[in-house]
Structures are given as C-alpha cells and as structure tokens.
Automatic annotation (TrEMBL):
Gene responsible for this protein: alkB
Cofactor: Fe(2+)
GO molecular function list: broad specificity oxidative DNA demethylase activity; ferrous iron binding; oxidative RNA demethylase activity
Protein name per its UniProtKB record: Alpha-ketoglutarate-dependent dioxygenase AlkB
Domain Fe2OG dioxygenase: 119-218
The keyword Iron is annotated on this UniProt entry: yes
C-alpha cells in the first residue's frame, strides 16, 4: 500500500496490467484470458494432425516439455541439433496452418507491448506436465529480429528472465492462465526459461500448462 492509499484508506492498487521487464519486454497480465477457449480448442485440433512429442537433443537427452507447432515452420531438435523445418518430421507433412485469428491477435499483443508491424509465421506450442521445465536459453534459431509473443494457459509457472549473458542475474516472474509476455528489440535475445512445473489441477487444463509462442521465423514466408 502506498503512503497515499494508507492516508486515504483506499484499497491497494490492482496488479498493473502492463509490467515492463526491460526495454522491449513486458508482461501483459491476463491479456489472453478471453482467447483461452479458442486457443485450447485449436491446440487440440493441431495436436491431432501434428502430435505433441518430446524431442531429443544433440547431447542425447530428451526434453521434459512436449512440443508441437503450426505455421510455416516448426522448431525441431534431434541428434543433429536444433533448427526450424517446414515439414513435421514425425508425419512428413507440412505443419498445420497457423489460424489467421491467432496471427491477428498476436500482432495486436505485440503492438500493445510497443512492437508495431509484427506478423508471425509460426506458433510453437509447449505442453508441460508436473516436473517439466525449460532451461535458460536464447531464442536464436529465427532468421528475423521480430519479437516473440508468449502466452500461458493452465497451471501457474515460474518464468526466469535473465540478461544477454547466460551468467546475468535472473528474475523470477510468476505466469498465470492468460498471461502474455512479449520480448523484442534490445531484449530479443535475453536468456529465459521456466522452472520445473509444480503439480496441481487447473479448472481449465487439469494437470497441465500450455505455452504458445508466436514468432516470425523467415523473412519472406507468405503467411
Ligand atoms: O513456456 C514458456 O513460458 C516459455 C517457453 C520458451 O521459453 C520458449 O519456447 O522459448
């Protein structure tokens, strides 16, 4: 409570809707709440065509997060390393289409965070079960410097937000159902991650968390 609120006996200020993280990076609290039903139904449709899978890494490990994708390219990792592929290696088919309404929504979310003109060509979809985590990393496989728009649904997660060096101090930011994080400009290559998901039951997603990240992978892709 601020001194003024104390003096006037006002209720505490509500949680700010727009939390700046760093230049070019912000959390938009609850901004995707109204999109939850549509996006979760879309995830189910996409997963019927390109199922969730836990990818392997060049080091021989298996990622704890399950992934699928839609759009012009999907992120893939295997013994050869990681990269974007225009076809799903599991099905041999192109990735399912990125729904046009999602693209328009992501353009608007990026604009609210200060990034005009973002037109994603891809959406990576992460599925977390309790214990799944994503270690600190930079998103540097995209061939553009467009921002990333990241949406959380389901169980709460702890987002780690560091700096441009792996060894920079890391802030921990709780992310709830409907929260959106956008990072671009000078923050585009900030190291970030998710700590191990704690077990729980969410009224909409049960024991799971879903994360969608909208990205522009290829400069010239037709969307
Ligand atoms: O699950 C999240 O909120 C973050 C996902 C992430 O870091 C990524 O896809 O690069």
């Amino acid at each position: 409570m601020t001194q003024q609120e104390f003096m006037l006996d006002l209720p505490p200020s509500p949680v700010p809707k727009h939390e700046a993280l760093d230049p070019g990076a912000a959390v938009l609290r609850g901004h995707a709440g109204m999109q939850a039903a549509d996006m979760l139904a879309g995830i189910r449709r996409i997963a019927r065509l390109s199922p969730f899978r836990r990818m392997t890494t060049a080091g021989g490990g298996t990622m704890s997060v399950a992934m699928t994708c839609c759009g012009a390219a999907g992120w893939c990792s295997d013994a050869r390393g990681h990269r974007y592929e225009p076809h799903d290696p599991l099905t041999g088919q192109p990735w399912p289409a990125l729904p046009p309404a999602w693209r328009a929504w992501a353009t608007d979310a990026a604009r609210l965070a200060g990034h005009d003109g973002f037109v994603p060509d891809t959406c990576l979809i992460n599925g977390y079960r309790p214990g799944a985590r994503m270690g600190l990393h930079q998103d540097d496989d995209e061939r553009t410097d467009a921002p990333v728009v990241s949406v959380s649904f389901g169980l709460p997660a702890m987002f780690q937000w560091g700096g441009l060096q792996r060894t920079d101090p890391v802030r921990r930011i709780p992310l709830l159902h409907g929260d959106v994080v956008v990072w671009g400009g000078p923050s585009r290559l900030v190291f970030h991650g998710i700590t191990a998901l704690r077990a729980g039951q969410h009224p909409v997603t049960g024991p799971c968390r879903y994360n969608l990240t909208f990205r522009r992978v290829w400069q010239g892709s037709s969307v």
